[in-house]
């Protein structure tokens, strides 16, 4: 009986070791997969150079994390507000540290853009050309940045509804 207990104990220890090692191997493989997925996701925030043909240099990137925004304008002469739908993209020099600064200030940048459109009536926005809106927004966005300045601002969507 003593011999049988020793054999069963060794078998249980052996099985426990196999389960433990299998868990470790599975965990390592899973973390590598997550790291690979995270890297692929981080690459999705950059647009291809072909999508912005007007980029001035090959060392430019597009920061696309701002996403689609909706802002209500200030009430116009008729007392009604309009909705502005915009999807801004920021061109910046290919610098990882500056990208991190943009990422840290993402909430502030969204707030600046939303406030810009909510402080104006739809009529005022319609009178301005895109260049004027871009320059005013660039000035406001660049005022919160320390390391560098944003090179250009693009809108893939710009609708006043």
Automatic annotation (TrEMBL):
Keyword set includes Protease: no
Signal peptide span: none
Keywords: Cell membrane, Cell projection, Chemotaxis, Cilium, Flagellar rotation, Flagellum, Membrane, Transmembrane, Transmembrane helix
GO cellular component, one term: plasma membrane
GO biological process, one term: chemotaxis
Superkingdom of source: Bacteria
Residue intervals passing through the bilayer: 7-29
Principal cellular location given in the protein's record: membrane
Subcellular location: Cell membrane
Pfam families named among the record's database cross-references: FliL (PF03748)
Matches recorded under InterPro entries: FliL (IPR005503)
Topology term for the membrane: Single-pass membrane protein
Function: Controls the rotational direction of flagella during chemotaxis.
PANTHER family named among the record's database cross-references: FLAGELLAR PROTEIN FLIL
Family: Belongs to the FliL family.
Protein name: Flagellar protein FliL
Organism for this UniProt entry: Treponema berlinense
